[in-house]
Specification:
Blueprint (H helix, E strand, L loop, with lengths): L5 H14 L4 H39 L6 H10 L2 H19 L4
Helix pairs in contact: 1-2, 2-4
Length: 103
């Protein structure tokens, strides 16, 4: 596992002290668990950012659509192929994360 950041080590020491645990093994276990959760959280935040970026062109397009057939045709051509590819990649990434239990 990577080196544990100082803020996580400080929190782990505080938690161990408050719980009445004093061994270095307790602090190590707590710090590794906290660090793993931070990495998981960071991964999920990045995934959310990727999904939002992929959805932006679709959301932007909605301001011009009035639920008419002409507007639906306009929307089909307003989005570009890269928008669809970015959306597909974001969904694929989400599905992959979900398979491994992170999503």
């Amino acid at each position: 596992m990577s080196e544990i950041p100082d803020d996580i080590m400080d929190t782990a020491r505080d938690l161990a002290r408050n719980a009445g645990w004093s061994t270095s093994g307790d602090v190590r276990d707590i710090s590794h668990a906290l660090f793993a959760e931070r990495q998981r959280s960071d991964s999920l935040k990045a995934l959310c950012d990727e999904m939002a970026k992929a959805l932006e062109p679709f959301a932007d397009c909605c301001q011009y659509i009035e639920d008419t057939d002409d507007d639906e045709e306009w929307a089909k051509f307003r989005l570009i192929v890269s928008d669809y590819r970015r959306a597909k990649a974001a969904v694929s990434s989400y599905r992959k994360e979900k398979e491994v239990g992170n999503g």
